[in-house]
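Batch manifest, entry 17 of 40.
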Amino acid sequence: MTDRELKGMPERNGRRSKRVTAILAFSIGIAVGAGSTEVTHVIRERHQGAPFERRLRCRNLAEAYAKKKSNELTTIFLHRSDFSRSRNSCVAAISSASGSLWNYEVVDILTGETLFSDQCFEKGTESDPAWCGNGRDIKLQRETDRAFEKIVK
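Output type: structure tokens
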């Protein structure tokens, strides 16, 4: 080998090592970026799955509550259930029929506390303010829904 060739070798090796270093740094950057993206996705999935799991658990608890409270004389109808962050508990909007009396309630399923309640009678006359007719039952259902929404928010 000539001196010129020997002098050129380190120069070529220097260029090669710079290329290898650049390629290696680029590859590591891609790997770190992909890894951090994957970690972000896993964390988001966990947080997004939690509300669904809470709602599902609340629904199951509300169904069990309605079944437990129902008997031969009273039928409980479950309309809605959800997790209330402000109460850190499960709440449900229910109605119940006991004879001619209809109750509309929002209850905390875990404590049994009644958070909203109103009632009307199936039998009655238009002059009776507690009669379910003339849309009063629909009005009570809307009021129950509003109370439920306020509690769940």
